[in-house]
Sequence to fold (263 residues):
Amino acid sequence: MEIQNEVKNKLYTSLQHLGLNEQEISLYSLSLSLGPTSITELAKHLNMARPNVYLLIKKLKEVSLVNKTNVMNKKFMVEPPTIVLEKIRERKNQLANNEMDLSSLMPNLLATYQQGSRETKIKIYKGEKQYLDLFYQTLDEANGEIKTLGSAGEFIKFISWEEEEKYIKTRIKKNIFVKALLFTDQDAETLRKNDKIEMRETRILKNVKPFDIIAMIFANKLILWQPKAPLAILIEDEYIVQMHQNVFETLWGQAKPDSSVIL
Fold:
């Protein structure tokens, strides 16, 4: 009995994913158990008028769950559950393709987004999983360029070089360039030496007291990464972002050109 209930529940959920309501699901389940049946008999079982049954059938036709062979014999029958599974997979593939399309368009969509008088959005991400999820999210939203400012050593120490290299490979595939203003340390030097092959220009910060936080500017957003906690603060505010853009560009211009030469 428990197995039967589990099967019914899973079938019910699957049909819901196809956009069917409770009555339409009841018709599908009834037809599945009765086989080819007249509309009159179905109406009796469902305790509803024939016209209403036809309305339910119309919806099942829209999702291709009506067996057309039996319709010719004036009998109604639904397609087997294998077709339900096939339709679910089609929906999932379609959603996956839509997600990829939207992801590729995200930088352009965000570039046209104007905050104006909208409220500032600030969100705090805590823990390793949220930290890394946000890290990779930047690649979906960056409009061709990401600017970073701060300590590469502390950041990479937390996420690991394995994650950093994975991120770099994905970034290169998405054709996203990085301008990095970093405090001098071994990790910064490692990054700097690979600038040409990793679509990046690294300049070394001087005459600025080192700090462990790293700032990342992309699209209309600013992220402050604090690897000690760890936590990250995501800020969506065009005025705050613009201020940090200006600070970055000032420091970038002050960094000696020869400090970005690849050794």
